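Take a sample.
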Amino acid sequence: MIGIVILTGTALVLGTILVIVDLTINKKDEREEEFLKRLPGYNCGTCGYGSCSGMACEMCKNIDAYKKCRPLRGDKLKEMEEYLENLKKD
């Protein structure tokens, strides 16, 4: 009986440690979702990042990466540039 209690306690502690480590390692940049909303969503890969999600991830490192997106035109382009201008002001 004591072995089961020890095993359960150990599993609880290790599970808690794994959750904390996962939350710290896989922290997502909040800007990535905002960039993704403003990209066209075609996932064509012509930018070289494979998908719009890859482009949004790259934009967190290099804000000017959106210029490689060929389908990003018109209103979407203006929306992206306005968002980036507001981001730079903050």
